[in-house]
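Final report, Chapter 2: Outcomes

The project's central promise was a pipeline that accepts a single protein chain and returns its three-dimensional structure in a standardized token representation, suitable for archiving and comparison. That pipeline is now operational. To close this chapter, we reproduce one record exactly as it appears in the project archive, with the input sequence first and the structure output second.
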Amino acid sequence: MANRHIIRKCQQSDRETIYYIINESAKVYQGVIPADCYHQPYMSRDELAQEMKRVSFYGREISNGLVAVMGIEPIQDVTLIRHAYVLPQWQRQGIGSNLLKYLKERVTTPRLLVGTWADAYWALDFYQKHGFTLLPDKDELLNTYWDIPRRQVETSVVLGTTVLK
């Protein structure tokens, strides 16, 4: 039987798998982002439960198992990309690119924004490769559309793109 490769909306029943994907993938931040911002688990189960109330998570499934997740959260006049993670052993195979393309096609706002750590060069490269540009008003954007600690605002960037319909 051939492997199934699908993108699907994640359900509450996927929460433990999403938790695993986020925390395994976020280990790459250790030693890169400020030490006072890195902790394990990177996202607690309680935090994920709260995020799943606001964020629509989609996942890439291969052979009946999720290997990547990415969420979208419409807020006011923009949509945010939230919690984009691919398990390390599945990275650099186009999975994140396919998931981002899939989500871009579902966005109904004119702008798509993503926030990430300023020192996560691989994330910056990924989003820039997909048409996102660094935005100069990142503090204002982070304070308007995200609910994150001040220290994270100081050490993050925002990238954006226009969604053409």
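Archive annotation: Residues 5-162 form a domain with the Aminopeptidase fold (CATH 3.40.630.30).
This record, like all others produced under the grant, will remain available to the consortium after the project formally closes.
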